[in-house]
Specification:
Length: 565
């Protein structure tokens, strides 16, 4: 059953070109009997997202308080009306505590529960609406800053609008006709006039009714737009990137999702249909793969799973990617339940009397980059800039050097850190540094005290650095989301060496500062490149002639492999 859809905002894992998206397996938390609708809110004031779930057979609302790591408390239940199907959240009495509005199909009412300290709620106050209300939405329809309600009535084929007033009071319903067997609603400004409009999914007439808001909480219309068979849920998002709000419906008999592109004046066009699981009953918009296109999560009641559809060009979606849920998924909501910057999914399972939590992860389940630049790694044993524990913060499978152990060295022509002729202490330093710069990735390399292996004279040739970076077009540590445009690139650049004189305490210094675009022209297009991981860095000597451009005889002088956090 579709949950509240009020004034929507899209919620914001790395994915390659194929848009791979990964979630944990379901973790289940008990609810009441036959849960139908779930919404995400913040009811306890601790900043952790909580859940409110209506239980159709128990005539209750269950509140599950969020905790660290995406866990939830045992439910606390509050009585509502007969056969509740859906709920919405708003501050109806102006005390800053979120309140609940519950659509009761069997009582033809909406129950108002006022929130209090510690996620407590008052006894319900019931308000009459039309026949067999299915869903309820919250919005300010008359511009007085008091939240109003819109209840979708399946039995009477209309929407009841109740205007809110002081102290959580509401006017009697004003009814607006829509299509046959209306099931779900989304509230948004579809024509850009700052008045909230209504979009209602009509299961019996296979269409969506658009009612445009007018002064005083009135509505014009309806104007109807066809979708596939038996739409039971509706959501809104920016699916085609043109800034006009679009619509998506879950269609039970077609087993698919219909998308409609928003156009001027609150019109819709460009119907597309994308297959999902069996008997889709609800859907929610989210951003699951970090490409800024709105995606969808769909609860499929008969196939016991959630279909994730990845948004792309136009109104097209890729997928479905099917995620296991419980028995009889009935409602779905999106939120960041474990505070890792990724979108997670909550889905109620009506036959199991529980809610499944699916935590979003990156590809292969590894963390995403956070504050990865600038970063410096060691190239010689005498210099170690890697912080302890780096190996525990990798972004991929372990490599040859899984920690900050000293790098391997095997050159047949040069050496570093050899004792000087005057027996002065070894003064060798060496590192590679990577940093996101202005429209570029900065590459720096430096090694000191470089000498010919024979005779220990200062080395007068060249060294060559080769580093393979996996980079995305997102800034590390920002939104913690990765782009679908990710690639591995090997950057090869030369380090010229400057002798300091054989009698000096320190031999030659070989160093360079360059950029990714100088090495591979055009590789960094946007200035928002982030280092996802470094698979390996190598430094080669120049062989017998010291010239890196004549590769015969060049050998690996230093090698280090480590993932940057």
């Amino acid at each position: 059953m579709a949950p509240l859809l009020g004034v929507l905002a899209c919620v914001a894992v790395w994915a390659p070109a194929a848009h791979a998206v990964n979630f944990s397996g379901p973790t289940n938390f008990a609810t009441g009997n036959f849960p139908q609708s779930v919404v995400v809110g913040e009811f306890s004031g601790d900043s952790d997202p909580d859940l409110a779930i209506v239980n159709q057979h128990a005539n209750t609302v269950s509140i599950l308080l969020g905790a660290a790591g995406g866990s939830f408390s045992a439910p606390t239940d509050f009585a509502v009306g007969l056969t509740p199907l859906s709920l919405g959240v708003g501050d109806f009495n102006g005390d800053s505590d979120p309140d609940l509005a519950v659509a009761n199909e069997g009582a033809n009412t909406v129950s108002i529960l006022l929130g209090g300290a510690g996620a407590s709620f008052s006894a319900p106050t019931d308000i009459a609406v039309g026949t067999a209300p299915q869903t309820v939405g919250v919005g300010d329809f008359n511009g007085d800053s008091d939240p109003d309600l819109a209840a979708v009535n399946e039995g009477s084929g209309n929407v009841s609008v109740l205007l809110g007033g002081a102290g959580a009071t509401f006017t009697g319903p004003t009814n607006f006709t829509v299509g046959g067997l209306p099931r779900a609603i989304v509230i948004r400004d579809f024509n850009g006039d700052s008045d909230l409009d209504l979009a209602v999914a009509n299961e019996g007439t296979n269409n969506v009714s658009i009612l445009l808001g007018a002064a005083g909480g009135s509505f014009t219309g309806p104007t109807n737009f066809s979708v596939c068979g038996s739409p039971t849920a509706i959501t809104s998002g920016e699916f085609n990137g043109d800034s006009d709000p679009d619509l998506a419906t879950a269609n039970e008999t077609c087993h698919n999702v219909s998308a409609l592109g928003g156009a001027t004046g609150g019109s819709f066009t460009g119907l597309t249909n994308t297959g999902v699981g069996n008997l889709p009953d609800d859907l929610a918009a989210g951003e699951f793969n970090g490409d800024s296109d709105a995606d969808l999560a769909v609860a499929n009641q008969a196939s016991d799973n959630v279909s994730v559809l990845i948004g792309g060009s136009g109104l097209g979606f890729e997928g479905p990617i099917n995620l296991q849920a419980g028995d009889g998924p009935s409602s779905v909501a999106v939120g960041d339940f474990n505070a890792d910057g990724r979108a997670d999914i909550a889905v109620t399972n009506e036959q199991d009397d529980n809610v499944s939590i699916l935590l979003g992860t990156s590809l292969d389940g590894y963390p995403r980059p956070a504050g990865a630049t600038p970063f410096r790694i060691a190239l010689v044993p005498a210099y170690n800039a890697c912080p302890p524990g780096s190996a525990n913060r990798t972004h991929g499978p372990p490599l040859e050097h899984a920690s900050c152990s000293p790098p391997a060295q095997s050159s047949g022509f040069v050496t570093i850190g050899s004792p000087d002729a005057n027996s002065a202490p070894v003064q060798s330093l060496g590192s590679l540094r990577y940093a996101v710069g202005a429209a570029d990735v900065v590459l720096e390399a430096s090694i000191t005290d470089v000498r010919n292996k024979s005779g220990l004279a200062d080395y007068a040739g060249e060294l060559q650095a080769r580093v393979t970076l996996r980079i995305t077009d997102k800034v590390n540590g920002g939104s913690l989301t990765e782009s679908g445009t990710l690639g591995d690139h090997t950057f090869v650049f030369t380090l010229p060496c400057s002798p300091t004189g054989g009698a000096a305490n320190v031999g030659s210094t070989c160093s360079v500062q360059t950029g990714a675009n100088a090495v591979v022209p055009g590789i960094v297009q946007s200035g928002k490149r982030a280092i996802w991981q470094m698979s390996q860095a190598e430094v080669l000597d120049g062989g017998a002639d010291g010239d890196v451009d004549t590769p015969t005889g060049n050998t690996v002088f230093a090698r280090q492999g480590i993932f940057v956090p």
